[in-house]
Amino acid sequence: MDQQKFLEILNECATSCDNCYNACLEEENVKMMSNCIRLDRECAEICRYLASAISRNSPFIKEIATLCSQICTACANECRQHEHDHCQKCADICMKCSEACNELL
Amino acid sequence: MDQQKFLEILNECATSCDNCYNACLEEENVKMMSNCIRLDRECAEICRYLASAISRNSPFIKEIATLCSQICTACANECRQHEHDHCQKCADICMKCSEACNELL
Amino acid sequence: MDQQKFLEILNECATSCDNCYNACLEEENVKMMSNCIRLDRECAEICRYLASAISRNSPFIKEIATLCSQICTACANECRQHEHDHCQKCADICMKCSEACNELL
Amino acid sequence: MDQQKFLEILNECATSCDNCYNACLEEENVKMMSNCIRLDRECAEICRYLASAISRNSPFIKEIATLCSQICTACANECRQHEHDHCQKCADICMKCSEACNELL
C-alpha cells in the first residue's frame, strides 16, 4: 500500500471514530455505549498520532503502528456489538485500518 | 463546502506541514528553516485538532477554525519565502486551508 | 504568575478533566453526564495544547490562551451543575485555570 | 510510585522536551541539533499522550508506557551528546521519565 493511501485510511478511521463518539453521546441509552465512547476516543487519537508520525518521518512509526493496529481492533470489536449504523460503519473502517497497519508491519 | 471536503483539506494541510517539517530538518541550511520548522509543527497540530473538533461536533468549532485560519496563513507566509519545492507546495495548501476555514466562518 | 506555576495549573486541569471524563462514564446515569463527558474531553485537550504551546514558545500563545479560558469556563459551568465530587472538584480547577489564562492575557 | 508523582514526571518531561526543542531552534548551529529537535517533539507528544491515557483510565496504559519509555530513552541518548545546558537537563529528565515508565510496567 502506498503512503498516501495509508494516510487516507488513518484519517478516515479517525473521522469515523469521532463521528461514532458524537453519535453515541446522543443515543437514548448512553450507558450501553460507554465503552464504545471510550474506545472511539482512544482510536481517533492513535490514528491521528500515527498519521502525523508517518508524515514527519518519525523514527517510531513501526512501534506506533503496532499500537494503532491493536487499538483499532479493540474499537472494531466493541463497535461490532452495537446495532447502530454509526457503530457498524465504524467497525468496518477500524478493521480496514487495523489491517492496513499490519500490512505496514 | 461540504464537511467531507473540508476535512480532506485539513488532513492534506496537516500532512503537507509534517512533510515540510521533515524536509526542512534535512536541508543543508537548517538554520534558515528554523521558523518554517516551528510553523509547520504549529500548523499540522491545529489542522488535526480542528479536524477532530469538527468530527466530534465540538461546541467550539468556530473558535478553533478562527485560530486555524490564522496559523495556516502564518505558515503559508513563512513557507512562501523559501524556494524549496516542499515549502512552495506547503504554502499553496496552507492558503487553501486558511480560505476553507474562512468559508466556514 | 510565573510560567511554571501556570503550567502546573494547566496540567492539573487536564488531569482533573480526564479523571472526571472517566468517572462520568462509570456513573449510573451516564445520559445525564453526556455533556460533561464532551466538555471534559474538550477541556483536557486544550489545556495540554496550551501547556505545550507555552513550553515551545509558540507565536500563538495568547490566541490559544483565549480559547483555553473560554473552554475552561464552559467546562466549569457544566461540571458545577452535577453533585458528584469529581464534577465539583473539576469545576473548581477549571475556574482556577480559566482565571490563570485571563491573567496571562 | 503513586499516580500523581508519575503524572508530575511525565508533565515535567514534556515541558523539558518542548523547552529543549525551542532552545535548539535558537542555537547558532541548528543543523547539529536537527535530530534533537525531532526527538524532543516525539518525546513531548508521547509524554502528554501517556499522561492523558493514565488520567482517563485508558485500557492501553501499559502499551503506551512501553512506547513512552522507549522514546524517552532515545531522546535522553540524543540530548546527552550535546553540551548545551537545556540538552543535559532534558537528558536527565528523560531518563527519570523512562525509568518511571519501566517501574509502572
Automatic annotation (TrEMBL), chains A, B, C, D:
This is Four-helix bundle copper-binding protein. Pfam families: Csp. Gene3D superfamilies: 1.20.1270.360. It comes from the Bacteria. It comes from Gracilibacillus xinjiangensis.
